Amino acid sequence: MALPVEKKAERQIPDDRALVARILGGERDGFSDLVKRYEKRVVNYVYRITHRYEDAHDLTQEIFVKVYLALDRYDPKYQFSTWLFRIAQNSAIDMLRKKSLIEVPLTRPSDDEQGGGREREFADGGISPYRALKNKELNAAIEKAVAELPQDYRELIQLRHFAELSYEEIAEMKKLPLGTVKNKLFRARNLLKGVLNSFIEP
Fold it and tell me: 45, 88 in Cβ contact below 8 A?
């Protein structure tokens, strides 16, 4: 008679608060799970602030070092993501100040600035040259339009669409009423829609 084969339990990654508690309890290897969970979003968010691809990657590493060293100061009453992106925002702004780049360029960095033409975006398999050109133009137009928004609108767009935070997380991070966040994002999107109207196809 064959014995039943036990299925291996799938490894379940705990939520942010539980993961932080485990790390502070001695499971330091768990920090890599936090990094995997947020790394791409932090890189994307920091890049939208600095407009420098290599700096975004380097700064993201520094941000996670700061997070690791300050983890015991995280207050679990708040979302971990809002605490993380507040550190990311402050770090990106500090870097701009140090490099005297508060007025960030509105154009996309050249290949030389990218360090030998390193691609920032994944190629879309099978895309037509026309569509590739339109996408490139649209991306450049979006970056320019976002950069020209009023600062409070620009920050909310970056947090919502590039950092992918929820409305509630943004409200918590910016210490604003939820309704104010939603209203400002609605107005910001309308401003962007007006600027980008020529890219919207029927």
Answer: yes
